[in-house]
């Protein structure tokens, strides 16, 4: 059957964690992403690729919503985000401790606070490859929107300052283990943070200039110079162009093509180092049925490519 030899997994097994959560931003519907993706048949598709699949089941995260959650400065839903992400971190950790890959389906990108924190508990050396139109590295000071889905990376790096409500998050990422691909809508404060911390980012400009193959090669080389680090791939579907993945809350034109998105996933699979993947920001209540179908379809195929589907 399968000849896949993952470097950091005990077996070709995956834990799938659906996180129907939208509290990291203001648009309804992104919490329905995971159900749609599962309905589309992702679990069977992964089994067909040779994976043994453990499904965590559809939990009701609204039970974690606190009775009161006033803004902390500009930041919204801090307690709610905190409770959900802390729980997600444990779920990811549990799958990784068993030697499985952890696949988390969002939900908005604030969830990645939890997913990478969970990864780092088991693989403290893990690299984070972040595919996105946005850098999601705002701090409580720099955020305009107050949406925590625009901030997870600053919390992971420990540059967000102390927010008591999100006190469980400990710095678990260093700038040298972080790389971005696909950026094209970066806030002024975020640009400053990227520069000051020497964070490597391949914007769409670099994708145009070098081509996606070279960019992915440089990105992996940057975060894992000896190809020895476990990789956590956090894929915000808005990294893709809105013509490719329309149903998402903060679309930005000029994004990755269908093939560029898939190439990234294929190349990361080829490293054999993938230990965790997030698929985030699929919002089935935005745009028409056809657009939703298109977005969910591509979300599933990105995951399959990262987990070994090939064209030939
Ligand atoms: N995960 C996302 N889609 N993030 C969008 C963030 C947009 C903007 N930079 C903000 O801070 O609100
Ligand atoms: Mn984004
Ligand atoms: Mn994002």
TrEMBL record:
> Looking at the keywords, is Manganese present?
yes
Q: Which reaction does it catalyse?
A: L-arginine + H2O = urea + L-ornithine
EC class: hydrolase
Q: How is the cofactor bound?
A: Binds 2 manganese ions per subunit.
Single annotated GO MF: manganese ion binding
Q: Which UniProt keywords apply?
A: Arginine metabolism, Hydrolase, Manganese, Metal-binding
Gene Ontology BP, a term? arginine metabolic process
InterPro entries (alphabetical)? Arginase (IPR014033), Ureohydrolase (IPR006035), Ureohydrolase_dom_sf (IPR023696), Ureohydrolase_Mn_BS (IPR020855)
The entry's Mn(2+)-binding residues are 109, 132, 134, 136, 236, 238
Q: In which pathway does it act?
A: Nitrogen metabolism; urea cycle; L-ornithine and urea from L-arginine: step 1/1
Can you cite an annotated GO cellular component? nucleus
Per the UniProt record, which EC number(s) apply here?
3.5.3.1
Q: Which PROSITE patterns match?
A: ARGINASE_1, ARGINASE_2
Q: What cofactors are annotated for this protein?
A: Mn(2+)
Q: Which family does it belong to?
A: Belongs to the arginase family.
Supply the name of the protein.
Arginase
Record organism: Linnemannia exigua
């Amino acid at each position: 059957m399968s000849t896949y030899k993952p470097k950091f997994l005990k077996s070709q097994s995956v834990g799938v964690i659906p996180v129907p959560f939208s509290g990291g931003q203001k648009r309804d519907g992104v919490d329905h992403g995971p159900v749609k993706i599962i309905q589309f048949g992702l679990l069977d598709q992964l089994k067909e690729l040779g994976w043994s699949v453990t499904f965590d089941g559809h939990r009701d995260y609204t039970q974690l919503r606190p009775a009161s959650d006033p803004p902390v400065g500009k930041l919204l839903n801090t307690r709610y985000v905190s409770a959900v992400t802390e729980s997600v971190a444990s779920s990811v950790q549990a799958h990784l401790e068993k030697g499985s890959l952890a696949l988390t389906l969002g939900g908005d990108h604030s969830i990645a606070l939890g997913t990478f924190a969970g990864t780092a508990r088991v693989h403290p050396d893990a690299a984070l490859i972040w595919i996105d139109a946005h850098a999601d590295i705002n701090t409580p000071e720099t955020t305009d929107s107050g949406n925590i889905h625009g901030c997870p990376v600053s919390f992971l790096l420990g540059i967000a300052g102390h927010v008591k409500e999100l006190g469980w998050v400990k710095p678990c990422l260093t700038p040298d283990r972080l790389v971005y691909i696909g950026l094209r809508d970066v806030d002024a404060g975020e640009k400053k943070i990227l520069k000051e911390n020497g964070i490597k980012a391949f914007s769409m400009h670099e994708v145009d200039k070098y081509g996606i193959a070279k960019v992915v090669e440089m990105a992996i080389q940057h975060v894992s110079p000896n190809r020895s680090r476990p990789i956590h791939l956090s894929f915000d579907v808005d990294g893709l162009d809105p013509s490719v993945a329309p149903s998402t809350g903060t679309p930005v034109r000029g994004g990755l093509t269908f093939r560029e998105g898939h190439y990234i996933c294929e190349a990361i699979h080829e490293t054999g180092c993938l230990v965790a993947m997030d698929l985030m920001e699929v919002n089935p209540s935005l745009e028409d049925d056809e657009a939703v179908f298109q977005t969910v379809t591509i979300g599933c195929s990105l995951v399959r490519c990262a987990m070994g589907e090939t064209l030939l």
